[in-house]
Amino acid sequence: MRRAVIRLVTFVGGLFFLLEFLLPERAPDWAGGFDNPLTPHLTDVTNFVIIVGTMAFLLGPINLVRSHVSTILRRRKGLLDSAAFLVFLVLGVAAAIQHFEQEASLLYDVLFYGVLFAFGASSMAMLSFYLVSAAYRAFRMSSLDAGVMMLAATVVLLGQVPVGDWITYSLPEWLHLKTWAQWVMDVPNNAVQRAVLIGACGGAFAAGLRHWLGLGAREL
Amino acid sequence: MLSWLGRLGRVDRRWLYLGTVAVLLVPFIVTVPMPPGRASKATRGLYDAVESCPPEKVVLIDSSWDMGSQAENYAQLECVVRHLCDRGVKFVVTSIGVTPLAPSFAEQVITPIAERAGYVYGRDWVNMGYVQAGGGAGVIINGMCKDFHAVRPTDAYGRRVEELPLLGRVRSIDDIHAVYCITYSPTPEWISFVQGQYGTPVAFGCMTIMGPSYFPYLDSGQLCGMLVGNRGAAEYEELVGHPAKGTQLIMAASFGNCMIILAAVLGNLGAWARRRRERRPA
Hints:
Chain A is mainly alpha-helical. Chain A has helices at 2-22, 42-73, 79-101, 106-138, 144-159, 162-167, 177-212.
């Protein structure tokens, strides 16, 4: 019964969006000239989707709290990590409520700008170190293919920054690194990206169709 | 000689990290006079879209980034907002689906520029805040195109759209001249629902590593323009004649890229020397 309801709601929802998108805003005169009957309901359905999505926001924290509370109660491995998670969850909620009620909130500033901001920016900044380390350890010209790839990577890396312009400044424009980097992007890259996109879209279409028609049992 | 070259393949990674920090810091300590060069077709496309905005229309900016991609998205938003303010173009800011922190980050960039340009909040620009897109951004985008007020009845501060004079004239996609989406990796649903359905120009601002994914859309004309990383921001700043954060950060990227190439060359030299030594008869 539960599966049948989910399948029905999914099918009707998918059919609504599909028909609303595909049908013209106004039918031709020979067909009666009436407006798309689904469009007036689009806002309500969209708001419904936003509400459901927002409710789903709660599911994540609820599941995490259940899992971490269970870890603490049963004294399993990672107990301290779970405790840290719960403490920061409570602090985060308290800071958000305080920030919502009053403009200036020290707790909010410390947690979001002092801790979360610093962690987020630092974790992305670490990528630059990993990139240099990976280039040093793994980027080997061990074959002709790898050599071509390294040449293309060097041209693109230099062609995207002013150093590349500076190196080839005195050469004719067709020899500028920027010109070659743009060619790599516009020709070989575009060809590959299009091939990947066509394949991925075909896959996404098939997956979407399975969801819509309720053929994928695992999703339910 | 071979043994000396072989040592290049055994450099402690901490020296590489230290070298990376050192080269990335250079542009923040000394000014390196290296302009970003001529603007690419992608950057110029966005510039032209802003330039051609008629006075009765607005530009919709979807600013959906936070500290993770701030290093590139900050400058991409800053240069375009400055251009809009210089030209007197009014704009609406949304943050659809990516991160709830996005509206406050957008505000940090926009407020000082808008205040300096004499822009009044509500009359000249509006921040519509974050919208959760659990069912996919396309559903929200499609709804906003048809009835902006119904999908976003309040701004980021909870004020009703009726209290915001600018939104009195922004009711659907017909009132929007162009859409500019800035985030780590903009969703192509902007193209499907905005450019594909209504022909409204769409431009992206994305991280450098995501740029290659969007070039096919630019080539086909589905994107009118794109700022790729700090390079795009620096080129845009050059076009509007106001070098700022993008121009400064592109120099850091310059040195960072050189460091990556240097690391690859050192690693390859070391590996080559090791192979040669191993092949030698004992």
